[in-house]
Design goal:
Elements: H1 8-13, E1 29-33, H2 38-43, H3 54-60, E2 81-85, H4 99-116, E3 120-124, H5 126-133, E4 141-147, E5 150-155, H6 167-183
Parallel strand pairs: 1-2, 1-3, 3-5
Antiparallel strand pairs: 4-5
């Protein structure tokens, strides 16, 4: 299904909208974006902006058997995967969010994780994770922190603006999490 083009006015009208989570209890991995972009808010689908590499990387890393379109996000639940965000409101750029919003988002995210109890929380964006959880030294990869029984992994941000990572190198890091999530069958 081809995505339709939105006018600048339509995208601006989506500012501050919330994109509903794709979640269920007991997921294997709950992916957590920074916050929805305007395209995601306009469509109601996570990681909807053309050029965002989340969906291709999810497939390249082996999490999904084929590349899903953002409009197929609900299919993630059948693979034991879900999506949420650190901050719920949509903006054009993540740098429009304040540190206070990130910290409050981290608090709300921790409560959501305690309720849903995924095996892994995968935050896609090390800077957002550092601010939200007050861990200035966090690096990409598994973290010491847990939220209840949920382990935490920080992944590279799949935004097309993140030029430090290619789709392939990102997929390699996502695959490390997939292997850990497959091997870790503890509740």
């Amino acid at each position: 299904m081809a995505s339709r083009r939105f006018t600048a006015e339509e995208l601006q009208a989506a500012r501050h909208h919330v994109v509903p989570d794709v979640v269920a209890g007991g997921l294997s991995v709950l992916f957590c974006g920074i916050n929805p972009g305007l395209m995601s808010a306009a469509t109601g689908h996570h990681f909807a902006r053309p050029g965002n590499r989340f969906w291709p990387v999810l497939h390249l890393s082996g999490f999904t058997p084929r590349q899903l379109a953002p409009s197929e996000q609900e299919e993630l639940l059948s693979y034991g995967l879900g999506i949420t965000n650190v901050v719920a409101r949509a903006t054009a750029r993540a740098d429009e969010l304040s540190d206070d919003e990130f910290r409050e988002g981290g608090r709300l995210l921790a409560a959501k994780v305690e309720l849903l109890r995924p095996r892994w929380l995968a935050v896609v964006g090390v800077t957002a994770y550092r601010v939200a959880f007050g861990d200035r030294k966090a690096a990409i990869g598994p973290q010491e922190r847990t939220i209840g029984d949920t382990r935490v992994w920080v992944l590279p941000n799949p935004s097309g603006l993140n030029a430090h990572w290619t789709a392939r190198t990102m997929a390699d890091e996502y695959a490390r999490l997939r292997v850990a999530a497959t091997e870790d069958r503890s509740p």
